[in-house]
Amino acid sequence: MTAKLTGLLRRDLALAYRQKAELMQPLIFFLIVISLFPLGVGPGPQTLQKIGPGVIWVAVLLSSLLGMERLFRDDFNDGWLEQMMLSGLPLSLVVLIKVAAHWLTCILPLLLVSPLLALFLNLTPPMYQALLLSLLLGTPLLSLVGATGVALTLGLQRGGVLLSLLLLPLLVPLLIFATSAVDAAALQLSYNGQLAIIGALFLLALALTPLATAHALRVSQN
């Protein structure tokens, strides 16, 4: 089974890198959104430092939603998803593989360019460290919850709009705790509590969302 799951991960990564235009959309959108904020609020270093963590997190949320809709779309349209349901592999594990592939191809590049953007927004090293830790813990949670939303809207026309309406309210607590961690770092306070809450939310999502997503995918096939 391990070899089959590894093969699925390699397949999803290969398919993602073949669609380079779609693969680059979240990263380009992320860079554009963050570049526009200094033009809108002014280039003052103190202002940028104050809003920087929230700007980066909001940009990550919106950029990930941009690439989220295709998580199961192509597999649903060409019948591959139905074949996976009949293959005997646990569908929840297939979901985890696809979520991992989405994180590696759509969200990891955002994290890799975040040091440059942190300098652009005048974040101090402690603030960036807290931001990076919150992103490493929070973005997998974002992918897991997003997969459930995608599965629920899979068979709908214009499901992207509905997906945003479903997911953004659910992700508000993540945004609050993540930005709170960076604010605490800016004041040289401990932010372990905020990271612990984000980690707990991630573990809860890791336990529940693959099962919920698998059930939603089965319903979408009926």
Automatic annotation (TrEMBL):
Localisation: Cell inner membrane
Membrane topology term: Multi-pass membrane protein
GO molecular function, one term: heme transmembrane transporter activity
Record keyword Cell membrane present: yes
A GO biological process held by the record: cytochrome c biosynthetic process
Chain segments annotated as transmembrane: 21-42, 54-72, 93-121, 127-154, 161-182, 194-217
Keyword DNA damage attached: no
Protein keywords: Cell inner membrane, Cell membrane, Cytochrome c-type biogenesis, Membrane, Transmembrane, Transmembrane helix, Transport
Domain of life: Bacteria
Gene Ontology CC terms: plasma membrane
Purpose: Required for the export of heme to the periplasm for the biogenesis of c-type cytochromes.
Family membership: Belongs to the CcmB/CycW/HelB family.
Protein name, as recorded: Heme exporter protein B
Phylogenetic lineage: Bacteria, Pseudomonadati, Pseudomonadota, Gammaproteobacteria, Alteromonadales
